[in-house]
Amino acid sequence: DETEFRNFIVWLEDQKIRHYKIEDRGNLRNIHSDDWPKSFEKYMKDVNCPFKIQERQETVDWLLGLAVRLEYGDNADKYKDSTPDGAKNTDNTAKNAEPLINLDVNNPDFKAGVMALANLLQIQRHDDYLVMLKAIRILVQERLTQEAIAKANQSKEGLPVALEKHILGFDTGDAVINEAAQILRLLHIEELRELQTKINEAIVAVQAIIADPKTDHRLGKVGR
């Protein structure tokens, strides 16, 4: 916004840069004048700004840098021992980023919580509570995310099967019983496939735990 830009320049000069004397700032303060761009261009030359009037982003950045430098020069004793706000929170930020770093695995509340979760999710118990916690995390990620739940709730549409194309392998002597046997065999194959899928998922979950370089599954300990 042109008006905001001009007000910003006037504010910088009045409050921070103060290159002109107060009585010499009239042309720059007259932000509604058609001659303001010329006054601004002259101002840029007077403060030795290296950018052109068309390069507004660069000009604003340079003028802000000049204002900060002058502000610091006027209040060096005030600012020299200041600590950036971000640096004050560095330690807390690091701790919050890794909330499990300072976790007390021997805390009874921690053990009770992990055990309660393991029982709720029907996860095999382990002597090391951290191992159980990692197993809980894997289960939650794989089964309890919104996407996993939505996928599980999707109804499965069956595909039509031509029984006559599937060879039973024996003959009961009754066409109806033969057809029932074919259906049972197909259902059994489907159950075996589902079982194989669960076995594969269990293998992946176990591999995810023992592949952690901090975990020595032979010792049943973590972080050693």
UniProtKB/TrEMBL annotation:
InterPro entries: RTRAF. Pfam families: RLL. Belongs to the RTRAF family. This is RNA transcription, translation and transport factor protein. It comes from Centropus unirufus. The gene is Rtraf.
